[in-house]
Amino acid sequence: MLQILTLMVTIQLESCGHEPEAAGPKYYPMKAGLGTEYFRILLQSNCGVSVLDFTPRAEGESPHICLDRLNQTPNSPVAAGNSGGRKTCKRIILVCNGSTQVDSEANFTYSVDQPMNMLGMIQSQKTAELLLDLKLSSIVSCPENACIETAKAISRVQEAADCLGADCVPRYVEMKQIDDLDIENILKKSKKDKLEVEPFQPGWLTRLEDEVLSKLWNQSAKAWQSLLTELSDESEPEKIVVVVGHPAVHIALMGHCLYLSKEWMGSFHLDAGSISIIDFPDGPSSGGIIRCINYTVHLGRWSIPITRSTVDDEEF
């Protein structure tokens, strides 16, 4: 197994004994190879933790760099409604479906058309609890089992907002499905086996065939446009759209948000049960600001640690 070197970039001005700068979040391209134009698009808050994974490659080649996490803050990322000091009325929350039976067994690696296992159910419930802090406008999901189950879990908790003390009335959230979020058949076309491409490891998407990656990228572009159209509904001045899907399609959606090419898909990483947030303080037509990527703090003991030990348990 290749060793992963993890670098945490943390902004902690007050704890370091320095006077804090002007209040408000900062934006960083995270040294992931992105240009300075991304300073205002990738958000980094004070005391937020962001993680870069460096995976060694063949001798003489530079390591593969992957943004594992962006802006993991001590407080809930959904509690704040501002981006760069400006109130945002439009937001997309990307929710990765909970773990499925296929994730934990040696079956077809990429399938999401499976029911969630017990871990996945817990992850979905934890995500639903986190999103209870928000009044959701709609939940859009991929038409596959694990995604639909995750979407229903979120909807049930929203509907019980009055019983849970989060609202004075139940919240009935519109649920939709977008076929372009379904990438199951695309991933099945890959001839790579689990030994060649180990899913959900940093940079795994770049090891897929170019044809497979291109189809995934092109289909996700249609899904992205559908989501922007959904968000642009002028009948609702404030709109929060939750999108439930496979980590691969969410990575592609973030790539389209950042106006990147498909070659950048290996530069981002998402775990099952994670959320990523895109704010649109100037409206959907003006581009989004990514508030956080691969946020998993809400999963508690069932989250994947930010730093992964390379020492065997027996040595502790």
UniProtKB/TrEMBL annotation:
InterPro entries: His_Pase_superF_clade-1, His_PPase_superfam. Residues 1-16 form the signal peptide. It holds the Pfam family His_Phos_1. Keywords: Signal. Gene3D superfamilies: Phosphoglycerate mutase-like. This is 2-carboxy-D-arabinitol-1-phosphatase.
